[in-house]
What we know:
Distance between the termini: 63 Å
Number of helices: 13
Structural class: alpha/beta
Helix content: 25-40%
Radius of gyration: 24 Å
Number of domains: 3
Shape: globular
CATH architecture of the largest domain: 3-Layer(bba) Sandwich
Number of strands: 23
CATH topology of the largest domain: FAD/NAD(P)-binding domain
Strand order of the largest sheet: 3-2-1-7-18
CATH superfamily of the largest domain: FAD/NAD(P)-binding domain
Largest sheet: 5 strands, parallel
Mean pLDDT: 95
Bound molecules: flavin-adenine dinucleotide
Strand content: 15-25%
Amino acid sequence: MGYVTRIVIIGGGPGGYEAALVAAQLGAEVTVVDRDGLGGASVLTDCVPSKTLIATAEVMTTFDSSYEELGIIVADDTPPLERSARVVGVDLGKVNRRVKRLALAQSHDIAASVTRAGATVLRGHGRLTGPQTAEGTRTVRVEGPDGVVQELTADAVLVATGARPRELEDALPDGERILTWTQVYDLDELPEELIVVGSGVTGAEFAGAYQALGSTVTLVSSRDRVLPGEDPDAAAVLEDVFRRRGMNVMARSRAQSVKRVGDRVEVALADGRVITGTHCLMAVGAIPNSSGMGLEESGVKLTGSGHIWTDKVSRTSAPGVYAAGDVTGVFALASVAAMQGRIAMYHFLGDAVGPLNLKTVSSNVFTDPEIATVGYTQADVDSKRIEANVVKLPLLRNPRAKMQGIRDGFVKLFCRPGTGIVVGGVVVAPKASELIHPISIAVDNSLTVEQIANAFTVYPSLSGSIAEVARQLYNRKTADGS
Ligand SMILES: Cc1cc2nc3c(=O)[nH]c(=O)nc-3n(C[C@H](O)[C@H](O)[C@H](O)COP(=O)(O)OP(=O)(O)OC[C@H]3O[C@@H](n4cnc5c(N)ncnc54)[C@H](O)[C@@H]3O)c2cc1C
């Protein structure tokens, strides 16, 4: 029998399980070790649960914000005193039971497909035991939930252990009223007054969702605006929508401590102000799961933030050890984790491999409206990292948007002067995550604004605005030669 390459993957999130599928297809003997369940945090606590919760919130907002304009009559025979300001409401216990059910089912589906592909799944905590042997192998020590320890020999190891919510010493979660984003699915009743600390993507998504579900929301941001890392025009639209819907958005307000006082929470701000609510959700970033795993003893270099340093084909500083996903700190996205994991396996197993290209990554903020982006950004253009022409078209002028009662949002495209090659774009709209795809294809394939402008779009459609923006950029190119 011929020699079979042995791969051990620590962590079964998108970085790990996608790598396992690829490696098994390429004929390797693969073992995936995960302490929580396949799908990882992405499926069990982060991406899948939050988007399932947001699916309910989305229906609420769409109905709430447009039913009157669209001529829908709501028969309401509740006595006036009991009548709430809102027309529809949610049963959060039911929503959360659905969230958990879907997450578990997804985790089982992934475990089944990884097993079907021929890989072995082991439940337990994995760690490296030290340097590479003279034969070029490594050992991964796995401690199972029952305390039984086994040692696996590997020709290559992929570390894809993800990250966990950052906790502040003076704002420790109690799982009841002071919560991380992994704990909110245990709530049976909607928080009446929710304070969300942190206005990055996670904070903004949860603030928007709970507001739509019916909570009174305060969003505490230490920065000048919400979503400081996103397109500034997009962030401004979202902040405006949040405020119009009644959210209390507190800019330049750093939360210093959070404490529970009876059935309420108190959030003390750095400037001395104190705000109170019934619940507080901490969304102040994530820290990599890189400690207690024998990484440094095995020659794996960590960065100052505790992330694993990797190159563009997912190699770490230790021969035979690769890393993928949030533990590398490259881009906290499931799609990027999966790509890093696949690249690692293609590289180690000698298949054709291209280096990770972050300039073609598309991502989305699942708020209402959604914010989808791909390629070079407004910040890249403003800082002259790339020379590009920019056109932004509000959705207000789009016929389909008018028919659907959509007022907020825009399409923005960036193209190279001269050639008109599309290098990036932003869509702020309902379902922007779906609308970004043609722009993503354009960026990935260096299509020109002329090519986008000339492709048919359905009339009337929101994607018509993408073609219209491309036409404006093309007209500008032909008119002034730029
Ligand atoms: C609230 C929220 C919403 C998000 N929404 C999106 C989204 O919509 N789209 C998107 O692309 N991204 C989203 N993300 C980001 C996405 O979830 C992460 O980028 C993704 O989970 C990273 O995958 P990963 O493979 O690195 O690790 P993870 O998914 O974190 O999985 C790592 C696994 O490794 C296990 N593990 C850790 N240490 C060990 C060990 N020593 N031994 C064994 N097992 C171990 C963990 O228990 C976990 O199961 C979201 C993140 C958050 C927080």
